[in-house]
């Protein structure tokens, strides 16, 4: 994309928009006075071809210009995974150097995050550390192992809230398995899936991400942790158990 | 599991059946972009809120005309943008976009991200001032495509233009913006 267009997009992410009001309640109050016109024909029965699983998944990635993204929604207790027959066609994102936030040192990440930053000792010190200011509240810390262009593993942590719900679509071939990490709930995902995230305007977007590998998501106290790498479930659980 | 959010097509179908909660989920999903689009067009937060609320209420009454399986976002943006235009005509105002105050950059050996280093604060101010100074049509198409990140289709719906018109006006708007920024500022 030409430089000017990139500059405009960058600018777009820094605009001081007035806070968007919550419209749901006022709109719904008015609907009661303006009932929808319904079709007279009987509707065909809706075939619900999928089970909606009340489970979790994080959406740590987004396209660069929307990296500020939905991070506040990525948590275990607030996410729904929906297996669907076919994934919608969306752009595939590769690499993730630019949308994890600011490149910082581990010490800076510890200082700026509102929570205690943990390091998986099985992986050692990260090669790159990123910090994303809110959202989510309290920030998000990401460790890249390898380089952001050629990552071997990505480990992300952020403070989780419990009141959000996110819809996450996964392909039929994607394996979702509930796991326990240190007594707390988590999920293991293998195969193609979607990330949903909030864009700048606070609306939900979907993006297909070319994964470096499989994903383990789990809760630890008030935080949600996410590990993505081309490793087996056993290996991921071993790494997850090695937090200092 | 019951009570969980459903996919958009199903939410629309349910809303068509009169399910207010399903429609409420759609409002939640699109109110942010609807409000900002309305703000860009109408020029004040109060008008934008009013336009977005009115748009969602009108869309509810018009749901029977919504084509099953079509994307909801361009459709709602079109309705909300129409409301916003009506209010702008009444008020004759335009949104003056401003930048957020950015927190101090972290010190130390941290390398700025590629995105952060794209422009410095002064260049951003200059670029935004240039955009704000463009004629309305140019400012709207740039705002929709780059600030709101609407697709061409959504931009066409929001501005009431054909897609081809969006393309040609966008390219002319960018050319005029380059002129304002000075030759050579952006190749």
Give me some keywords for this one.
heterodimer, A: 244 residues, 31% strand, B: Rna Polymerase Sigma Factor, Chain: A, Arc Repressor Mutant, subunit A, 2 domains, 8 helices, disordered N terminus
Set out the fold topology.
The complex is a heterodimer of chains A (244) and B (187).
Chain A: H1 3-12, H2 24-31, E1 79-83, E2 92-93, E3 102-104, H3 106-112, E4 128-132, E5 140-146, E6 151-159, E7 166-170, E8 175-181, E9 184-190, E10 194-198, E11 204-209, E12 214-220, E13 223-229, H4 233-240
Parallel strand pairs in A: 1-7, 2-11
Antiparallel strand pairs in A: 3-4, 4-5, 5-6, 6-13, 8-9, 9-12, 10-11, 12-13
Chain B: H1 8-16, H2 20-42, H3 45-61, H4 72-91, H5 121-132, H6 136-147, H7 152-159, H8 163-181
Structure summarized in a few sentences:
The complex is a heterodimer of chains A (244) and B (187). Chain A has helices at 3-12, 24-31, 106-112, 233-240, and strands at 79-83, 92-93, 102-104, 128-132, 140-146, 151-159, 166-170, 175-181, 184-190, 194-198, 204-209, 214-220, 223-229.
How would you characterize this protein structure?
The complex is a heterodimer of chains A (244) and B (187). Chain A has 244 residues and is α+β, with helices and mostly antiparallel strands. Chain A has helices spanning 3-12, 24-31, 106-112, 233-240, and strands spanning 79-83, 92-93, 102-104, 128-132, 140-146, 151-159, 166-170, 175-181, 184-190, 194-198, 204-209, 214-220, 223-229. Chain A has one domain. Chain A has four helices and 13 strands. Chain A is globular, with a radius of gyration of 19 Å. Chain B folds into two domains: 8-91, Orthogonal Bundle (Rna Polymerase Sigma Factor, Chain: A); 121-181, Arc Repressor Mutant, subunit A. Chain B is mostly helical. The chains are: A alpha+beta (244), B mainly alpha (187). Chains A and B meet through helix 1, helix 2, strand 3 and helix 3 of A and helix 1, helix 2, helix 3, helix 5 and helix 6 of B.
């Amino acid at each position: 994309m030409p430089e000017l267009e990139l500059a405009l997009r960058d600018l777009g992410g820094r605009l001081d928009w007035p806070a968007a009001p919550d419209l749901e309640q006022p709109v719904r109050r008015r609907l009661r006075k303006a009932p929808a016109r319904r079709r007279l024909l009987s509707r065909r029965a809706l075939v619900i071809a999928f089970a909606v699983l009340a489970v979790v998944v994080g959406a740590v990635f987004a396209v660069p210009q929307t990296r500020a993204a939905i991070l506040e929604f990525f948590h275990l207790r607030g996410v729904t995974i929906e297996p669907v027959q076919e994934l919608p066609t969306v752009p595939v994102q590769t690499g993730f150097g630019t949308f994890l936030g600011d490149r910082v040192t581990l010490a800076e990440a510890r200082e700026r995050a509102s929570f205690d930053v943990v390091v998986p000792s099985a992986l050692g010190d990260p090669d790159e550390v990123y910090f994303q200011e809110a959202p989510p509240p309290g920030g998000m810390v990401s460790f890249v192992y390898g380089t952001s262009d050629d990552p071997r593993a990505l480990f992300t942590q952020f403070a989780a809230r419990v009141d959000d719900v996110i819809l996450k679509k996964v392909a039929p071939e994607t394996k979702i398995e509930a796991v326990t990490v240190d007594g707390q709930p988590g999920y293991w995902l293998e195969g193609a899936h979607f990330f949903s995230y909030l864009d700048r305007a606070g609306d939900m977007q979907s993006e297909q991400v070319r994964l470096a590998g499989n994903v383990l998501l789990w809760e630890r106290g008030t935080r949600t942790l996410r590990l993505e790498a081309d490793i087996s479930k056993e290996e991921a659980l071993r790494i997850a158990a090695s937090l200092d | 599991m019951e009570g969980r959010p459903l996919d958009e097509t199903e939410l629309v179908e349910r809303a068509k059946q009169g399910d207010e909660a399903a429609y409420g989920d759609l409002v939640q999903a699109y109110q942010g972009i609807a409000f900002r689009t309305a703000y860009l067009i109408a020029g004040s937060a109060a008008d934008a809120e009013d336009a977005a609320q009115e748009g969602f209420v009108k869309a509810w009454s018009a749901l029977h005309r919504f084509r099953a399986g079509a994307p909801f976002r361009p459709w709602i943006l079109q309705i909300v943008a129409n409301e916003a235009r009506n209010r702008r005509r009444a008020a004759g105002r335009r949104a003056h976009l401003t930048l957020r105050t950015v927190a101090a950059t972290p010190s130390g050996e941290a390398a700025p991200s590629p995105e952060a280093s794209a422009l410095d604060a002064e260049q951003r101010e200059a670029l935004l001032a240039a955009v704000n100074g463009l004629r309305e049509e140019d400012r709207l198409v740039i705002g929709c495509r780059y600030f709101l990140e609407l697709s061409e289709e959504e931009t066409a719906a929001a501005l009431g233009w054909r897609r081809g018109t969006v393309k040609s006006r966008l390219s002319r708007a960018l050319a005029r913006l380059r002129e304002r920024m000075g030759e050579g500022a952006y190749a």
